[in-house]
Amino acid sequence: MADIALAGTATAPRIKAKVSGEEWGARAALLVLGAYLVITLALPLYTLLTKSVQDKNGQFIGLANFARYFDDPAMLQSLGNTVYVSILGTVITITLAFIYAYALTRTCLRGRGLFRAIALIPLLAPSLLPGLALIYLFGNQGILKFVLLGHEVYGPIGIVIGEVFFAFPHALMILITALAVADARLYEAAESLRAKPARIFFTVTLPGCRYGLVSAALVVFTLIFTDFGVPKVIGGSYNVLATDVYRQVIGQFNFQMGAVVGLILLLPAVLSFAVDRMVQRKQVALLSARAVPLQPKPRQTIDRLFLVLVALVAGFLLLVLGMAVFGSLAKLWPYNLSLTLKWYDFSRVGTDGWGPYFNSLRLAACVALIGTTIIFSGAYLIEKSRGATRLRMVLHFLAMIPLAVPGIVLGLSYIFFFNAPDNPLNFIYGTMAVLVVNTVCHFYTVSHLTAVTALKQVDAEFEAVGASLKVPFYRTFWRVTVPICLPAVLDIAVYLFINAMTTVSAVIFLYSAETKLMSINAINTDDAGNTATACAMGIVIVATSAIVKGLQVLVVGGLERRTQAWRKR
Amino acid sequence: MSGRHPYLRIEFVSKNFGDFQALKSISLDIYPGEFVCFLGPSGCGKTTLLRAIAGLDIQTSGRILQAGGDISGLPPSQRDFGIVFQSYALFPNLTVAANVGYGLAGGKMPRADIDKRVSELLAMVGLSGQELKYPAQLSGGQQQRVALARALAMSPGLLLLDEPLSALDARVRQHLRAELKQLQRRINVTTIMVTHDQEEALAIADRIVVMNEGRIEQVGTPIEIYRQPAAAFVADFVGQMNFLTVDIEAPGLIRLGQAVLEAPDANLAAGHGVTLCIRPEDIQVRGIADGKGNTLLTKIEHMEFLGSFCRAELRLACGRALHADFSINAMRDLGLVPGQELQVALPPERIRLFPGEEKAARHG
């Protein structure tokens, strides 16, 4: 018997899994997704890379463009400027967001829901809006100009304040997540050992959210480093990399130099990735399954202190938004402050009127619909299909790349790739289609991760049960997986919609006269000196985003009521 | 059994996960209508083997034949089985009826027939009238029955159960265990159940396959597994067992300290390092005469009251410990108390010998 067994192992051929028809279908779909991601992401980025090592005639010149870049004092100046405002902005944003997150999660703060909602306002606005509001507040005719003690808001001060507003909710969400999970027993242990509150903070609280702090700082730094909207509006003559790319490409048609700056803009994301990997390797699960969740206890002085701090931050956020609203309604700032709706008559500042608004809506609707379909079903195939392991790994990696690519770099890559005359896809350049494809790609990663997280929570054996009952996987997907994941699907759709409404950086390279968008129109209108109208356009975008977000809350609420029989949450 | 044709035949099945060999050339036949349990500690390969049979994780090498056909490489959708997972994997957004009828609804079966079949299945598992509830509205035991009804809906030739009872509390588990066995008898479906609970396996299985580290240690009926464990690992894993390192004196004679005892002739060479196994309940205290018939003089060190019986820790003359179970009756009649000296007998026919010293023998 032992001999037979040994012979069996020695000579047994490898069993090759037979692939059923529906599995071939799933693999074909994965290949289509792969082709889509290669065409809309990998090839454009590759073109950017090649452009940076070519001269104007397309000849390979090695690193000559980079050498020229680092010889140019003006260029180096903007690199220095960018690093400077990014570091300053990151330090301020993280400090404020940490205080805010700590107050929301670890103190007995009243009105938590309200403060949380206020903190998310900046997500609904295009990044030029804080710039405009700051001009009203601190500009030459600003009501709070005296606060700056004679310094100009146009330049680093304005950029940093605007970026803090813009980046705040991103940092806050990461820090809330990091601070929300805590094991009460660690605190009880520390207290029973008679540790002072400050010591507990530095030995228990901070180490517990170290990883969240690092990743929030990386995200904020990258956001500020690559942001285009704020410096465009309030930077004045203070140049940063993102505005440099725009000037090189749109102003001077110097595509090669644009490509070089674009690649430099990729650096912080690459750096973040490396740091993230390092930190993550050291990170161990601090929360075991048997941890006791921490319930904040009332501490009168501390609770009051944090209420004041949080109110100040929330007040600042509301002030910026409120100022933008008021600026769009005041008859003639700052001389005649009576209210008017005339700035909302967009036909006064150009022939487009409200056309760009409907373009924006069309783009946002298409991106939400098409993007959600592609990203969610793509994530499902990557996460749940059998076999084709290597292909699925490659696709997951491709889906992660957009997070590292700033909009302005993606937009630039798209010009290089889709505007090339020998590209058979050249015909979509200048159409709404290229804007849709670009925007879906721009916001792919966060949506993909949302989908993957939701799918991971679905019982891994549903597909196996379906197969044992001879039901094809796509039917189980449609009848079971999608209904269970509907809240996440809506999350993705609304995220894509709002970002398509507010984005400027990528699409500013790609729009044409027929596909001009509201956010871009606002920038152009501000460039032409019509600040109030630009503000009004920004407010229209905020209002639209807010309505869509509100609708989502209503729909999800209704959905939960209708499905509460089976949804345990 | 060997006269019949096996329904499921597993031939030299191995499964590697990278460098780790989860299954090492497993061969096994399962006969029509049998209820077989794969029993073993976690990581022994029992679930891996079940998933290979289902086609969910196809084996690296070796063949699997079902009803005479080679299914080795087939995807799960082309095999003939119903499955119940530990999590039940009930679709939370579908009603009980839709869950049970999930596989029926796609085909050509008319609506009315589906409804009829679903009610039959629900009646069979004792859940009539629960059609319109959602899984979250049912208790754990009810959910388990829905999963069972769904797995049986397509009348599969093979029923696979992956620790189906382990998520339930002890009382429900015992109750469902009996029902499951009855139901399986009634519809006579060949069934494989994976479990790490030896009591469950003993109670429910026609045959038990004890697995350890990717290998089969023993295949046998519950009584064979319990009475004649083929390896020290099996003896240790199933039920309570005393392990004592002894020397072979001569064929059929062993030395334990100063005492020489009769034991079955296990074909082991004379000398050092053999492990003696005897179950605590097989140690006799009544009806033994002094110095005769495999007796040992011991001292009661400690007694643990376990409800219907008492487990006593006995100290041998050589200083080693031996556990023995005494009924409450015996305790009363003999007036057993800790500290007392006690003569016990180890019936030769209850003794099993395994090669190697105690530690090595236990871990196979």
Summarize the structure in short.
The complex is a heterodimer of chains A (569) and B (364). Chain A contains 23 helices and two strands.
Give an account of the 3D structure.
The complex is a heterodimer of chains A (569) and B (364). Chain A has 569 residues and is mostly helical. Chain A is 70% helix and 1% strand. Chain A is globular. Mean pLDDT of chain A is 89; it is low at 1-10. In chain B, α3 (111-124) crosses α4. The model of chain B has no long low-confidence stretch (mean pLDDT 91). Chain B has 364 residues and is of the alpha+beta class. Chain B is elongated, with a radius of gyration of 25 Å.
Jot down its keywords.
heterodimer; A: two-stranded antiparallel sheet; globular; disordered N terminus; B: 364 residues; six-stranded mixed β-sheet; five-stranded antiparallel β-sheet; 10 helices; 25% helix
Tally of strands of chain B: 19
Distance between the termini of chain B: 28 Å
Overall pLDDT metric of chain A? 89
SS strand fraction of chain A:
under 5%
Give the overall silhouette of chain A. globular
Structural class of chain A: mainly alpha
Number of helices of chain A: 23
Low-confidence segments of chain A: 1-10
Q: Kindly report the oligomeric state of this protein.
A: heterodimer
Most residues in contact, chain pair and counts: A-B, 38 and 45 residues
From the spread of the alpha carbons, the general shape of chain B counts as elongated
Q: Kindly state the percentage of residues in helix of chain A.
A: 55-70%
Structural topology:
The complex is a heterodimer of chains A (569) and B (364).
Chain A: H1 2-11, H2 21-52, H3 64-71, H4 73-106, H5 112-119, H6 128-138, H7 156-180, H8 184-192, H9 197-208, H10 210-226, H11 229-234, H12 241-251, H13 255-282, H14 300-329, E1 330-332, E2 336-339, H15 355-384, H16 389-400, H17 407-418, H18 432-442, H19 444-456, H20 462-468, H21 473-502, H22 518-527, H23 531-562
Antiparallel strand pairs in A: 1-2
Helix pairs in contact in A: 2-13, 2-15, 2-16, 2-17, 4-7, 4-10, 4-14, 6-7, 6-14, 6-23, 7-10, 10-13, 12-13, 13-17, 14-23, 15-16, 15-18, 15-19, 15-21, 19-21, 20-21, 21-23, 22-23
Chain B: E1 8-17, E2 20-30, E3 35-39, H1 46-54, E4 61-66, E5 69-70, E6 82-84, H2 96-100, H3 111-124, H4 140-152, E7 158-162, H5 170-187, E8 190-195, H6 198-204, E9 207-212, E10 215-220, H7 222-227, H8 232-237, E11 242-250, E12 253-256, E13 259-262, E14 271-278, E15 295-305, E16 309-316, E17 321-327, H9 328-334, E18 341-345, E19 352-355, H10 358-362
Parallel strand pairs in B: 3-8, 3-9, 6-7, 7-8
Antiparallel strand pairs in B: 1-2, 1-4, 4-5, 9-10, 11-12, 11-14, 12-13, 14-19, 15-16, 15-18, 16-17
Helix pairs in contact in B: 3-4
